[in-house]
Amino acid sequence: MQERIRSALQTLLQNTGDDWFIIIEEPEHEKFVQFAFDEPSGLFFDLPFQALTKAELERARKLFAALSVAAQKAPMLDQPGGKEIGQQESFNHHVGRDTDQAVDLAYRVFKEVYVLHDSVRLDVTIMR
């Protein structure tokens, strides 16, 4: 699992330009982590609360508290640039170009939050 995650993130880091996005997902149960990427800032980890069950959210809170990563709130819009219709809460962490830290975060979410086995299949989607 770690090597699949590392390979996906290294592929993303090899692209140039801004506004790249990667989703690493266990497709059977639709469990995922995601990263945004742009040239000046590097990788930005994001795990939205609405993707988590109650038990997963509790495990995520414990994991990210131990890593000193606080939850962040952001407005949800009805369309890009549109009216605010609510708040979205997620765990976010800027990792820059630190592939080891990015791999560790994603791996720990799959193992400790989603409680998935190392041999689970992961799908990778890279978009711009």
Question: What does this 3D model show about the protein?
Answer:
- The protein has 128 residues and is an alpha+beta fold.
- It has one domain (2-127).
- Helix content is 32%, strand content 37%.
- It has three helices and six strands.
- It has helices at 2-14, 54-66, 99-113; strands spanning 20-26, 31-38, 42-48, 71-77, 84-96, 123-127.
- Strands 4-5-3-2-1-6 form a six-stranded antiparallel beta sheet, with helices on one face.
- β2 (31-38) and β3 (42-48) form a beta hairpin.
- It is globular and about 40 Å long.
- 20% of the residues are buried.
- The model has no long low-confidence stretch (mean pLDDT 92).
Question: What descriptors fit this protein?
Answer:
37% strand, alpha+beta, 128 residues, 6-stranded antiparallel sheet
Label the structural class. Answer: alpha+beta
The main pleated sheet reads as:
6 strands, antiparallel
- The number of domains: 1
Low-confidence stretches: none
Q: State the separation between the terminal residues, measured CA to CA.
A: 24 Å
Beta fraction: 35-45%
Main-sheet strand order equals: 4-5-3-2-1-6
* Global morphology: globular
Q: How many β-strand stretches?
A: 6
Number of helices: 3
Q: What average pLDDT do the residues reach?
A: 92
Share of residues in helices = 25-40%
**Series of H and E elements:** HEEEHEEHE
Rg, nearest Å? 14 Å
Secondary-structure topology with pairs:
Layout: H1 2-14, E1 20-26, E2 31-38, E3 42-48, H2 54-66, E4 71-77, E5 84-96, H3 99-113, E6 123-127
Antiparallel strand pairs: 1-2, 1-6, 2-3, 3-5, 4-5
